[in-house]
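Hello forum,

I keep getting stuck at the same step: I have a sequence, I want structure tokens, and every attempt I make locally crashes halfway through. Rather than fight my setup again tonight, could one of you with a working pipeline run this one for me? It's a single chain of 122 residues.
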Amino acid sequence: MTTNVLVVDDSSVSRKILIASLPKDWDINITQAVNGLDALEKYHQGLADIIFLDLTMPVMDGFQTLETMQKEGLDSFVIVLTADIQPEAEARVMKLGAMAFLKKPVNKEYLVTILKEHGIYD
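Reply #2:
Ran it on my machine without issues. Output:
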């Protein structure tokens, strides 16, 4: 079964780096979004089983996106990818429902470990 992956980041370079880091043999359909509002629209279109979410973006940042998802009861597996690696940021996103918190640039091996630990990729 194909998994819908949504990559949310205002930087096209960051999106490309993340997409290149995903396992090549993973059966996924990748959609991209440039901010949280765009991401929520794509979620409602059924394009987001798994979301890779940046925190710092214009229009609607990652924190606001997670807050909205929590308020609306939206169910998706969210992995936050950010350069903001402060413990407070990590604690806040985990409280808002993120399943994992990874720093940029993404470490491909660690990303695969996280996916396996949560039963998303084997």
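The beta strands are 3-8, 28-33, 50-53, 77-82, 100-103. If your local run keeps crashing, start a new thread with the error log.
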